[in-house]
Description:
This protein is an alpha+beta fold and 188 residues long. It has helices at residues 26-35, 59-74, 85-93, 118-127, 153-162, 171-186, and strands at 7-13, 39-43, 49-54, 80-84, 107-112, 133-137, 140-144, 166-170. It folds into two domains: 7-88 and 174-186, SP0830-like domains (Alpha-Beta Plaits, 2-Layer Sandwich); 89-169. α4 runs antiparallel to α5 (153-162). The longest helix has 16 residues, at 59-74.
Amino acid sequence: MSGKTGKIFIALFSGINVGGNRIVKMVELRALFEDLGFSEVATYVQSGNVVFQSGKGDTATLTSQLEAAFEKKWGFHSRIMVRDADWFERLVEQNPYPEVAEEPTKLHAYVLEREPTAEDEARLSEKCTGPEKFQIKGDVLYLHAPDGLGKSVFAGLIPRTLKVPGTARNWRSVLALLEMAGKVGSGS
């Protein structure tokens, strides 16, 4: 324990380690965060989820700093969504589909760069004709895909229909990251 204090953040990377492309080892990603002066750095699974503590900076500043450092080190751009632990807590509390929270492969949260407009949402609603349901709350899109994300045609339409950059995580990942952030916050 370094004794540093600060706020707990979670960084979500998009487009790394997918289909054998843009490979980034988590141990190297952790090292990047540590080299940037962050403490309590921990990663979760290979898709690029990092819990860390920072004594200074807000989410926008940290996002810019991390995207620049990442691109310099790996030579390609990864869009990064940085949110604080309180934001993640709200995301879980506001889940509109609590009945499927126990089936984490059927529930996904898309962390969006900005809150979609009513027009964005209306465009997406028109495409949602299958078994899926979605709700947007602020800068989060909750997707209930009863057949799983892999079989969902609608899920594939979300990015280009919504036109708001974001990155999706299944509910198991969301809960695991929140739990990790809580452990850092409690000092355990």
